[in-house]
Write a structure and sequence with these properties.
By secondary structure, the chain is mainly beta. It contains 2 helices and 11 strands, in the order αβββββββββββα. It starts with a helix and ends with a helix.
């Protein structure tokens, strides 16, 4: 019985130590891609902006910018050097209309230079075509002291 309670105590401590994340960039940092079209489309790109939308802090791209169902898309985010130290995590939120909204974390480049990358495969039914929206989300880790201010 004692071991069981000790296990619960450890779980509670681990939950308290999980990081909290605060959005670093502006809403609207997104691109649209064509899914279910016959041919591969050129890459699409967008600039990324600070939370107020006033400062350019990076760029994001999806290559190819569209294609048939099953296309493998490379998602690449580059946070400019002067802003990259604050960013601890990057994700992309995919909105496929009637399908569910998903969110995927990108992998940070091992050099720590503000480059994040993921490969996502478009899914759908045979004959389906649609426009998907990909929203780029940059995050900074917050602590309890940060949220108390």
């Amino acid at each position: 019985m004692r071991l069981f309670w000790l296990g619960l105590g450890l779980v509670a401590c681990d939950e308290e130590n999980e990081p909290s994340w605060e959005r670093y960039n502006a809403d609207g940092d997104e691109v649209s891609i064509a899914v279910g079209v016959a041919e591969l489309q050129p890459a699409v790109t967008t600039l990324l902006h600070s939370s107020t939308g006033e400062v350019e802090i990076g760029e994001a791209s999806v290559d190819p910018g569209g294609g048939p169902i099953g296309t493998l898309h490379t998602v690449l985010v580059t946070v400019y050097e002067e802003y990259s130290p604050g960013v601890g995590r990057v994700s992309v939120r995919t909105d496929s209309g009637d399908r569910e909204v998903d969110e995927f974390d990108l992998d940070a480049d091992s050099t720590g230079t503000g480059i994040y990358k993921a490969e996502l495969r478009s899914v759908g039914e045979d004959g389906e075509s649609r426009e998907d929206s990909l929203s780029f989300r940059l995050w900074v880790e917050t602590t309890e002291e940060d949220s108390a201010d």
